[in-house]
Design goal:
mainly alpha
Length: about 180
């Protein structure tokens, strides 16, 4: 508002100077036209000054606010990027330790797997040995039974030979008579 007042005051001073020049014997209609051009220019400049004075502070305030907001966002983004970079640097620094830990863990797991495989193999060997011993015992039993049967067959055959060798027709008749007697 002050600006508008200043502009109007300046316009009045210029107009007064123009009137003073005209009354002091100006050039006539050409000078009058010149005065109106200056007056028109001052009114136009005042209107433009008024509109700029009215809208420029709002525009520049909004622009300033937007710039401040973007500066704050950029600062936050920078801090976030620095934090991420620090985290990456920390992870890179700990990477060697993590690799060593992973290697140790892998070696421990390999040893544990080897021990488990050895125990499994020992258990399987024990099962196989026990099964083999049972098979041997079973085969021994079967062989003893076969041997007993064979011995019994041989004993029966030997007894039959001896009986046939001792059997005479008279002995046969005596046996048949004794059998028939026992039946009665």
């Amino acid at each position: 508002m002050r600006r508008v007042t200043r502009v109007v005051a300046i316009a009045c001073l210029v107009a007064a100077a123009g009137f003073a020049q005209e009354s002091s014997g100006g050039e006539g209609s050409s000078g009058n036209l010149e005065l109106w051009k200056w007056a028109n220019f001052l009114v136009l400049a005042g209107a433009i000054g008024y509109l700029v004075g009215k809208n420029a502070p709002v525009f520049f305030a909004a622009r300033s606010l937007k710039i401040r907001k973007e500066i704050v966002e950029a600062e936050e983004a920078r801090k976030d990027a620095e934090a991420r970079a620090a985290a990456v640097d920390q992870r890179l620094a700990n990477l060697e330790a993590e690799i060593a830990a992973l290697r140790t863990e892998a070696h421990d797991e390999a040893r544990a797997e080897t021990a488990r495989a050895a125990q499994h193999t020992a258990a399987e060997l024990a099962k196989i040995q026990m099964h083999a011993e049972q098979e041997i015992a079973s085969a021994g039993k079967a062989a003893r039974m076969e041997l007993k049967r064979y011995a019994a067959d041989l004993a029966i055959e030997l007894a039959a030979r001896k009986i046939r060798a001792r059997m005479t027709p008279a002995t046969q008749d005596a046996l048949v008579r004794g059998f028939v007697r026992d039946l009665k």
